[in-house]
Amino acid sequence: MIENIEKLTKIQPVVIKQLQTIYEKNRTGHAYIFDGAKGTGKSEVAMFFVKLCSCLNVSKNVPCETCRNCRRIESGNFPNLLQIEPDGQFIKIDQIRELILGMTRTGFEEGRKFYIIHHADRFNNSSANTLLKFLEEPEGEVTAILLTEAYQSILPTIQSRCQQIKFANVPREILMEKMQAEGISLSMASTVSQLTNSLETAIFLANDEQFAHGRKTVLKLVEAIKRNIHEALFIVYEDWLPSFKEKSEIEQALDLLLFAYRDIVAVKADLKNVLVFPDMLASFNEIALHSTYEQLSNHMQAILQARQNLQRNMNRTLMMEQLMLNLQEGYTFV
After folding, report:
1. What confidence tens digit (pLDDT) does each residue in 219-271 have?
2. Are residues 316 and 228 part of one domain?
3. 157 and 231: one domain?
4. Nearest Cα to 206, choosing from 218, 194, 221, 217?
5. pLDDT greater than 60 at residue 60
6. Under 8 Å between Cβ of 274 and 192
7. 272, part of any domain
8. Is the pTM of this model over 0.85?
9. Which end of the chain is less enclosed by CB atoms within 10 A, N or C?
10. pLDDT score of 334
């Protein structure tokens, strides 16, 4: 449908244009690797490409969605398209043998045949080598589309026989729209969309009570820092250290703290970009009024330094005490 191609073009404009050019110039290859992070639309774009190459009524390099072939592809009943997923942890040799048998069997409809392999980085040695032989010597018009989130995990011999199609991360505003459609607030969607590009992960974080508590703790600390060192240290001892015990949790908390100060810089510069914490606009505006760009830059450098100290396994209490002292520099209190 028109809405579908518009959505795909919005998410992956370069990839869609690339595939449309391949079709328009009649240069469909025998193997592609669609490489991109989770949630970047690889499966949807693969189906679009199969439809484009199989549609009976293509118009302006867009499949009609209504012809017999388009409808059968959509319903999963198109004989010239086969798909496989890993069976358990791996894609197994029997799956590849069955796939090859299906691709070489006579009596199928005329036209190009396609096979889509999901999680193509999860071959075992035998299945990878069996596929490799078929990639080297496909019979007839056959196109492979391998989907992966881990391109480097695919055998170099398979990589070399496929054209890599690199998928960009989903634009943040698109991810936020999808999250809000799932009932997530603008404020939480703004924060989570800065941490992940995966809709599934974003929704999980947005609904996670521990993450919500961590977000609240970070913002409480920002509020305390602008008042005085004693209150800031109190929040560190009473809230921050008990809330963030694992190294990964502290890393994420420091990232959120850094995003807060980036928001303050954006507010001070009157930039119209989406804030990570839009619910803190009034408070951040007050901090921005009493801070210079140099001070805010120093604050962000101090947070980045704390992150480095964390990687060096510095004592976490000492690290946070030092960070609070660095974040207090330059402030004048009445």
Report:
1. 999 999 988 899 999 999 999 999 999 999 999 999 999 999 999 999 999 98
2. yes
3. no
4. 194
5. yes
6. no
7. yes
8. no
9. C
10. 34
pLDDT in the model for residue 108: 63
User: Per this entry, what is the length of the chain?
Assistant: 334
Q: Is 102 inside a domain boundary? A: yes
What burial class does residue 140 get, using C-beta atoms within 10 Å of its C-beta: 0-12 exposed, 13-18 middle, 19+ buried? Answer: exposed
Q: What is the mean pLDDT of residues 43-65?
A: 95
Tokens representing residue 107 in the block: 């009596």
CB 144 within 8 A of CB 163: no
Residues 202 and 196: their CA atoms lie apart, in Å, by 6
Range of the domain at 270: 208-328
Which one, of 123, 124, 165, lies nearest residue 143 by Cα?
Answer: 165
Tell whether 334 is covered by a domain: no
Residues 247 and 322 in one domain: yes
**Residues 6+ away with beta carbon under 8 Å from 76:** none
Please name the residues in contact with 199: beta carbons below 8 A apart, sequence gap of 6 or more. 39, 170, 175, 178, 179
Number of domains in the chain: 2
More confident residue, 197 or 268: 268
Residue 18 three-state SS: helix
Would residue 129 count as lying in a domain? yes
Sequence letter at residue 275 = L
